[in-house]
């Protein structure tokens, strides 16, 4: 009897330390691919669309972003608790990719819908964006929790992070390179043959910030949402949950566990603050990127080419992340790449100077270095979430994966809020004119401040925060060993 029980424990441990196949890693990464199509486009272009094409005031748009994110402070913990307490034959987390995924892509497309009677309507924009954000949590929190349920194998987690970030940045290629190019190609007003910056490629492109471009935005984004829905389905089909809470652990989950995790899980708090800062400076830059290219350097037609350069590091280099982590260490990895981001921002400032606007080579170099640093730092940080979940389970006896991901989601959304709302208020304060084809010097200074200097300073602060992160790779191995011993004891006591 004891031998049979021992073999069952070993089999459970074998499943939990399963080495993920390439197909499983790609399957999971399709979830990142899908969500980046949705929220990458929203984060990178909604502010520009809302204030120019949809002619909603800059400050008003900022308040819409802020209010919706405040609601998430209450919504995300409820979602995390709801998901952690329930399961089904299809799994605890996977089913939500389909249950909420379809409404997600429909609502996202509606954000850019040029519907008669609602153009410039603040209530319509607010309601759709509000609903989208609530549904996004019901997809994103279970998806993030699924990451920690696939395996407890540390090497597989590192490889999984690399694979998912390659797919996430593949989606960024579609968002930041092709999306603005496709929309400008479909925009009807001001069409002319323009140099795209892609090796001499010239295309007939229109003004995509003119109100007449509404159908162009909606048509392109709708195609993206269909692709996103397919990717979510593939994620559902190609993944399997192996490390999940027991029925007893699930029954004990409470919303107040969120506060216990924040109180007792120090690595979670430090990583959360790092998440918040990282996404703040990322979305500061992304929110005003279109403004910067349109009004500061005057080369919106280059956005596709520059977006292509920006996508290369995130697609090609993640395969080297596990090796680089071993060379530089966990903290050294983040310091290296955040430092690269800051250097890239300084080069972007040089590009913004009078006389340098036409230097396409400088735009390429600045963007490549900046995005290499950004995608590496903000991509690999997801590899730390499973070890934070394991640390929390060791301390509390509860595997609150969804609640912890809800907490991480809160930090992410605080960063997304600050990075989406504050830049717009800065632009309004600096006198940005939503209807003007050219901006005065003060408005341009506001764009530079929000696109370059504030992100650089926040990146520097995030380096300091990461230095405080307490879990080493040796600690991860010890945590897993202690959890194995606890689970074996519980199994034998049954």
Series of secondary-structure elements, N-terminal to C-terminal:
HHHHHHHEEHHHHHHHHHHH
Shape type: globular
| End-to-end CA span | 13 Å
Number of helices: 18
Q: What structural category characterises the helix and strand content?
A: mainly alpha
Low-confidence stretches: 1-14
Number of strands: 2
Mean pLDDT rating:
85
Strand content: under 5%
Largest sheet: 2 strands, antiparallel
- Radius of gyration over C-alpha positions, nearest whole angstrom: 23 Å
Helix content: over 70%
Q: Within the largest sheet, what's the order of strands?
A: 1-2
Short characterization:
76% of the residues lie in helices and 2% in strands.
Question: How would you describe the overall organization of this protein?
Answer:
The protein has about 500 residues and is mainly α. The chain is about 75% helix and about 0% strand. It has helices at about 1-15, 20-55, 60-85, 95-100, 100-110, 120-150, 155-185, 215-240, 245-250, 255-265, 265-295, 305-315, 320-350, 360-380, 385-395, 400-430, 440-465, 475-494, and strands at about 190-195, 200-205. It has a two-stranded antiparallel sheet. The radius of gyration is 23 Å and the shape is globular. Residues about 1-15 have low confidence and may be disordered. This is MFS transporter. Keywords: Membrane, Transmembrane, Transmembrane helix. One of its GO terms (molecular function) is symporter activity.
């Amino acid at each position: 009897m004891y031998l049979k029980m021992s073999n069952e424990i070993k089999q459970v441990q074998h499943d939990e330390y399963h080495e993920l196949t390439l197909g499983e890693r790609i399957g999971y990464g399709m979830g990142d691919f899908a969500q980046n199509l949705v929220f990458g486009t929203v984060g990178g272009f909604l502010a520009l669309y809302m204030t120019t094409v949809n002619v909603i005031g800059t400050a008003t748009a900022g308040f819409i972003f802020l209010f919706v994110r405040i609601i998430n402070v209450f919504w995300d913990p409820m979602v995390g608790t709801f998901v952690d307490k329930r399961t089904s034959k299809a799994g605890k987390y996977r089913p939500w990719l389909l249950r909420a995924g379809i409404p997600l892509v429909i609502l996202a497309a509606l954000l850019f819908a040029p519907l008669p009677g609602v153009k410039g309507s603040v209530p319509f924009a607010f309601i759709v964006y509000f609903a989208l954000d609530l549904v996004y949590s019901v997809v994103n929190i279970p998806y993030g929790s699924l990451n920690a349920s696939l395996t407890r194998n540390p090497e597989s987690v590192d490889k999984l992070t690399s694979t998912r970030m390659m797919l996430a940045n593949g989606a960024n290629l579609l968002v930041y390179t092709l999306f603005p190019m496709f929309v400008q190609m479909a925009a009807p007003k001001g069409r002319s043959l323009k140099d795209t910056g892609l090796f001499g490629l010239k295309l007939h492109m229109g003004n995509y910030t003119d109100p007449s471009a509404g159908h162009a935005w909606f048509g392109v984004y709708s195609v993206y949402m269909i692709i996103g829905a397919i990717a979510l389905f593939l994620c559902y089909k190609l993944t399997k949950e192996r490390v999940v809470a027991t029925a007893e652990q699930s029954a004990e989950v409470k919303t107040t566990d969120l506060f216990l995790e924040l109180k007792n899980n120090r690595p979670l708090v430090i990583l959360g603050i790092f998440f918040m800062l990282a996404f703040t400076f990322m979305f500061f830059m992304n929110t005003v990127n279109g403004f910067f290219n349109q009004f500061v350097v005057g080369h919106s037609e280059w956005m596709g080419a520059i977006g292509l350069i920006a996508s290369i590091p995130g697609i090609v280099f993640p395969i080297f992340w596990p090796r680089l982590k071993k060379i530089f260490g966990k903290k050294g990895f983040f310091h290296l790449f955040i430092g690269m981001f800051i250097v890239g921002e300084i080069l972007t400032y040089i590009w913004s100077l009078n006389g340098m606007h036409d230097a396409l080579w400088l735009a390429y170099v600045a963007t490549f270095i900046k995005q290499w640093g950004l995608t590496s730092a903000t991509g690999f940080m997801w590899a730390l979430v499973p070890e934070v979940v394991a640390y929390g389970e060791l301390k509390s006896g509860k595997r609150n994966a969804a609640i912890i991901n809800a907490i991480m989601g809160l930090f992410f959304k605080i960063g997304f809020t600050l990075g989406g709302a504050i830049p717009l208020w800065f632009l309004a304060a600096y006198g940005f004119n939503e209807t003007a084809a050219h901006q005065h010097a003060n408005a341009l200074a506001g764009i530079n401040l929000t696109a370059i200097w504030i992100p650089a300073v926040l990146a520097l602060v995030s380096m300091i925060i990461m230095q405080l992160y307490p879990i080493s790779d040796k600690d991860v191995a010890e945590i897993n060993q202690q959890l194995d011993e606890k689970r074996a004891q519980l199994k034998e006591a049954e």
